Amino acid sequence: MIFFVNLPVGLPALFLLMRIGPSPRQADTGFDRAGRLSAVVTMGGLTYAAIEAGADGLAAPRVLDAFGVAVIAGALFLVTQARGRHPMVPLPLRRARTMLVPAGVGFALDVHFYGMVFLLSLHLQQTRGLSPLATGMAFLPMTLLTAFVSPGAAWFAARFGPRMPILTGQLTMAAGLLILSLAPASAPTWLVVLWSC
């Protein structure tokens, strides 16, 4: 239910995007309907299975069914990418170092950052007794910092090359996560929020 809050922003954004014409430099690559659908079903099945496994266990029938759907849809996704005319993710990219390294870095960032957000929100509410509203407010410094750092990263990359901001960002995130994981239970909430930034 909480995700319905995205509708007032998402629907007008979709409407505005539909009114924007294609870029003159955009190649006509087609639309990979089968690939997109199978990717959504794969991720949806995995997400549902992971969430329900926490409550019912890995051997629960609906968890196994969701994993099964994800495996079948994932196999279908690979087939569509290998044989489709306009694949969403062309399989030869998996051999390109220029694709693998950024994809690996992005995967590591997403897993650790969003995993931290999920666990920290539970910690702040269940362990430290913050309300959902107070927990959301506690994430404001992190959100504001991200909003300011992102434009600066482009300038940083243009001046020092792409490797420096990636390396700096990953090392900073790793240090922050390490500090958070070692933080004592007696640490004040404001300090935990500061470390999460």
Task: Give the topology.
Elements: H1 7-18, H2 33-56, H3 61-83, H4 97-127, H5 132-138, H6 140-160, H7 163-182, H8 189-196
Question: Can you describe this structure?
Answer:
- With 197 residues, the protein is mostly helical.
- It is built from eight helices and no strands.
Q: Tell me, rounded to a whole number, the average pLDDT.
A: 83
Number of helices: 8
Class by alpha and beta content = mainly alpha
Stretches with pLDDT under 50, minimum 5 residues: none
Helix content: over 70%
Number of strands: 0
Strand content: under 5%
Q: Note the overall shape.
A: globular
Radius of gyration: 21 Å
Tell me the quaternary state: single chain
Q: What is the terminal-to-terminal distance? A: 28 Å
The major sheet is characterized as:
none
SSE topology string: HHHHHHHH
What features would you highlight for this structure?
197 residues, mainly alpha
Describe the structure in brief.
Helices cover 74% and strands 0% of the residues.
